[in-house]
Write a structure and sequence with these properties.
The complex is a heterodimer of chains A (153) and B (771). By secondary structure, chain A is α+β, with helices and mostly antiparallel strands. Chain A contains five helices and five strands, in the order E-E-H-E-E-E-H-H-H-H. Chain A folds into two domains: 73 residues, Ubiquitin-like (UB roll); 66 residues, [2Fe-2S]-binding domain (DNA polymerase, domain 1, Orthogonal Bundle), CATH 1.10.150. In chain A, a hairpin with a 2-residue loop joins strand 3 and strand 4. Chain B starts with 21 loop residues before the first helix and ends with a helix. Chain B is globular, with a radius of gyration of 27 Å. The longest helix of chain B is centred in the C-terminal third of the chain and has 28 residues. Chain B has 20 helices and 29 strands. In chain B, helix 6 packs across helix 7 and helix 17 crosses helix 19. Helices cover 28% and strands 24% of the residues of chain B. In chain B, strands 3-5-1-12-9-10-11 form a seven-stranded mixed beta sheet. In chain B, strands 8-13-14-15-7-24 form a six-stranded mixed beta sheet. The chains are: A alpha+beta (153), B alpha+beta (771). At the A-B interface, helix 2, helix 3, helix 4 and helix 5 of A face helix 1 and helix 17 of B.
């Protein structure tokens, strides 16, 4: 199981066990109970495990847990407001941007980062920003509307 | 059925309310199979076959069993010889005696953690004797080919299958006299088309969790499209009574046919039975690719004869499908493809026939469209070639020949709701067809139309009033993400005239839910919706009987009023559901439980009109219709075709939730776009060469254009719930053909083999330049 590590996760210090090959995704899902991030491909392609590490988007399935020590990690759960939907999350609901929901947490983390960089993104800027997140249910249109919808407020 | 109201008058139907499960999903709190755990749970893993076809000589499990943490190792020797299958019962829980495709599970392990289980599985030694392989349907059907299922003749079949050696099923439908009709034609076009294998690629890989209770009951949770098909498959292949298996579902990370029949559930149950501990198995992406199922590759010979003025006279279609190693839904896919082969057109003479063969590939099975995208690609591409030869606009040619009101579908079934003509007219306008068609810029546009079925088999609903006058709706229909919980809630709320939040939708559970064949065949809104209306009407009858006592009136003189009230027609006097619920629970009669079940029963084949052989179903469904225009741009240097826009018009009878209908159109388009342009499972000899997302590309935001225009056409289905029929599959069916036709418009290149890769487009451009 490896050593005890201490992670700064969604603004809280959380302890977990991690070996040299344990991924951040395994730790946050299996030990820390944050299951919004999903294992869709486990090779960094689908984007369902997207989290933010020190403000940069990262694939939790490719990030080693031990390398995440001392960094600020934010998951979709960390973007909620006291457990209630944030404006961005609410915009996903209101725009019908959720179907099966498996990609949703990763999409929201990527969208949040995009809006930090570009507060009022164009359609193509959202498409660029979400190009690393696969959704198999939709045609992305409603997801793009959700991101732009919250930007327009 | 309650179908007389129009959208304007309706209270809950026709509104784009958010999905009832959207909130838990955006918060990251929705629970899928990978999130579920049970106390003392073990993890399962499997060993896969390294050969496409081989006899199993012996197993050596010693090394695996010695690994610390391993609790159980099972091989084919530990399983009795029971078989499952929706059409032909030809498949065991695990390979036994021989393996029939590379990747097939041959042994499995349960251990304290996943890593240990996976490592131990690789320590199992299996001795094989290789057998000759058959890797195409042509090879499979050759005389003397290696036979996959020596006992095929003895297998139980649920229909009169025409099956022998590697021929899994043969189906034929004919009307009129095609052979004579060719003489009446002024133009006959005949071509061969080929389509590739597509992976469903639900973002959630398949998984299951099984637990045996002390009294022997097996609790089974899994990612599925039908808790009832899971229960049936597990019990058939493990020889268990269905009363011993309770099949349930958490949230499902999408299903497109891949989760309809069994995947890993039988092995998971076997491990739980052997260890007496809960066992969870979650497939890796590679295992999911290699062992679940995929869309059938087709070879299609299509021949169409027409008059000079464009009147369709005759069509003949011959199909050859790769079925893979087990029948699964293949006979059904062949049957549906045969039935869809002439499209939504009137042909006085038509014949479609085809074979599906066993091969040493992974099983091919149900996938959104169920054989229709393949035949629609062939038929719609050919109709465009005919339009070009006759100098007729492709939309005009279609308008001239689509099924008119009152005309029957191929095979003879009547078509009550038919909006195909209107769909064509709508997309002509919305896409600016006439202008774009004239312009010969770099972009091209293409049209395609299709009909598809919505229906099939049995379903039920229970509408139960709670003590405070709110309700639980229980249908057993799995919401796979498309939003059926929301749609069925809206249907129920409309029938009861109450707000959405007064209805709770129960999750599917074979112990508690009425039977539902599954979330497949675009059927839940239509068939389960009918059951919900029936159950709600049953509840309303009971409510009125009680209200009549309170109001001292006759039940026939009562009416439902919005918000959960029953009143006397023409009078103010009324009583609330709250009061009735209290009365029935604590006073008179008993709690209100409304229920309704049905089996779809319209005949697909009219024997007075058509001759059919080897049809795997007798009552398939009502018909939905769509027309779409695609726009593509061609890179003249690389040959790459990219999608630039799509205009849809889809006849859904009545949109219960227009926003969710749009979601189905968007999703069908994106999945169809990937299928048309680049998705392809490739086998290198018997080995699947690209079983990862790194090597198998699916459409992302860069490939799917934002401009998807959706027009919802509503020609109410007379017996549908408030006029509704399905929409899930039709949205994909039209995509490859419309993109193919757009490529031809843009480049002059006619492709007859999918996907329309840059190489194929470029080769076409070069050939055209040479000739």
């Amino acid at each position: 199981m490896g050593e005890t590590i201490s992670l700064n996760l969604n603004g809280e210090v959380r302890e977990a066990k991690a070996g040299l090959t344990t991924t951040l995704l395994e730790v946050i899902r299996d030990q820390l109970g944050l299951t919004g991030a999903k294992k869709g491909c486990n090779q960094g392609v689908c984007g369902a495990c997207t989290v933010s590490i020190d403000g940069k988007l990262a694939r939790a399935c490719l990030s080693l847990a031990v390398n995440s020590v001392g960094r600020e990690i934010t998951t979709n759960e960390g973007l909620t407001e006291d457990g209630e939907p944030s404006a961005l999350q609410q915009s996903f609901i209101d725009n019908g941007a959720v179907q099966c929901g498996f990609c949703t947490s990763g999409m929201i983390v990527s969208s949040h980062a995009l809006l930090q960089d570009i507060p009022n993104p164009s359609i193509d800027e959202v498409r660029d920003g979400l190009s690393g997140n696969v959704c198999r249910c939709s045609g992305y249109r409603k997801i793009i509307d959700a991101v732009r919808g919250v930007a327009r407020g | 059925m309650v179908a007389e109201k129009t959208t304007n008058e309706m209270y809950q139907v026709g509104k784009s309310i958010p999905k009832v499960d959207a909130r838990e999903k955006v918060l990251g709190r929705a629970q899928y199979i990978a999130e579920l755990t049970r106390p003392n749970m073990l993890f399962g893993a499997m060993l896969q076959s390294p050969y496409a076809h081989a006899r199993i000589i012996a197993y050596d499990t010693t090394a695996a069993e010695k690994v610390t943490g391993v609790k159980c190792v099972l091989t084919g020797d530990d399983f009795e010889d029971h078989k499952m299958g929706p059409f032909i019962k030809d498949e065991g829980a695990i390979a036994k005696g021989k393996v029939r495709y590379m990747g097939e599970p041959v042994a499995c392990v349960a251990a304290e953690d996943e890593e240990t289980a996976r490592a131990a599985a690789l320590l199992i030694n299996v001795e094989y004797e290789e057998l000759p392989t058959v890797l195409s349907p042509e090879a499979a059907l050759e005389a003397g080919a290696a036979v996959l299922h020596e006992d095929l003749a003895d297998y139980f079949k649920v229909f009169e299958a025409i099956a022998e050696n590697n021929l899994m099923s043969y189906t034929e439908i004919s009307e009129g006299d095609v052979d004579k009709a060719w003489d009446e034609c002024d133009l006959i076009v005949e071509n061969v088309y080929e389509t590739q294998a597509q992976n469903h690629l639900s973002l959630e890989p398949c998984g299951a969790l099984a637990e045996v209770e002390p009294d022997g009951l097996i609790n089974l949770w899994s990612a599925n499209q039908s808790v009832f098909r899971v229960q049936a498959n597990v019990c058939e292949c493990l020889g268990l009574p269905m009363s011993r298996v309770r099949s349930m579902t958490p949230k499902v990370g999408a299903g497109f046919g891949n989760k309809m029949e069994a995947h890993i559930q039988p092995l998971c149950v076997a491990l739980a039975l052997a260890t007496k501990r809960p066992v969870k198995m979650i497939l890796s992406r590679e295992e999911d690719f290699e062992t679940v199922r995929a869309r059938h590759p087709f070879k299609i010979r299509c021949k169409t004869g027409v008059k000079k003025d464009g009147t369709f006279v005759a069509r003949e279609v011959e199909l050859l499908l790769d079925g893979g190693a087990f029948a699964d839904d293949s006979p059904g896919v062949l049957g549906n493809a045969t039935l869809m082969s002439v499209g939504p057109y009137h042909f006085p003479h038509a014949k479609a026939f085809g074979k599906v063969a066993y091969t040493n590939h992974l099983r091919f099975a149900a996938f959104r469209g169920f054989g229709n995208p393949q035949v629609t690609f062939a038929g719609e591409a050919q109709i465009n070639d005919i339009a070009d030869k006759l100098g007729i606009d492709p939309i005009d040619l279609r308008l001239k020949n689509v099924l008119a009101k009152g005309q029957q579908w191929f095979g003879g079934q009547k078509v009550d709701s038919n909006g195909i003509y209107e769909c064509l007219e709508k997309v002509r306008v919305s896409s600016d067809w006439d202008n774009k068609r004239k312009n010969s810029g770099e972009n091209g546009i293409g049209i395609s139309v299709a009909g598809h079925i919505s229906g099939l088999l049995a379903t039920g609903a229970i509408v139960r009033m709670l003590e405070d006058g709110t309700f639980v709706l229980n249908t057993g229909a799995t919401d796979i993400g498309q939003g059926s919980d929301t749609v069925l809630t809206q249907i129920c709320a409309e029938a009861l005239q109450i707000p959405i939040d007064r209805i709770r939708t129960a999750t599917p559970d074979t112990d508690a839910s009425p039977y539902n064949w599954g979330t497949t065949a675009s059927r839940v809104t239509y068939t389960t919706g009918r059951a919900v209306v029936g159950a709600a009407e049953d509840a309303v009858r009971q409510i009125k009987d009680y209200a009549a006592i309170v109001l001292e009136s006759l039940a026939d003189d009562l009416e439902l009023r919005e918000g959960g009230m029953v009143g006397i027609k023409g009078a103010n006097k009324e009583v609330s559901f709250f009061e009735i619920a209290a009365m029935t629970h604590w006073g008179v009669g008993g709690p209100i439980v409304g229920s309704h079940t049905l089996v779809f029963d319209q005949s697909t084949i009219d024997p007075k009109r058509a001759v059919a052989k080897g049809m795997p179903f007798t009552n398939i469904g009502v018909f939905t219709f769509a027309a779409m225009v695609s726009e593509v741009a061609i890179n003249q240097v690389t040959g790459k075709a990219s999608a630039e826009g799509a205009w849809y018009a889809v006849d859904v009878g009545q949109a219960i939730n227009p926003g969710l209908v749009e979601g189905q159109i968007d999703g069908g388009y994106a999945q169809g776009l990937g299928y048309a342009l680049f998705e392809e499972m490739i086998w290198d000899d018997g080995r699947l060469a690209n079983p990862t997302l790194m090597d198998y590309k699916v459409p992302g935001t860069a490939e799917v254009p934002y401009d998807i225009d959706t027009t919802i056409v509503e020609h109410p289905e007379p017996d549908g719930p408030f006029g509704a029929k399905g929409v899930g599959e039709i949205t994909l069916v039209t995509v490859p053909a419309s993109i193919c036709n757009a490529i031809t418009h843009a480049s002059g290149v006619r492709l007859r083999k999918m996907p329309f890769s840059p190489e194929r487009v470029l080769n076409g451009i070069i050939e055209n330049e040479i000739t």
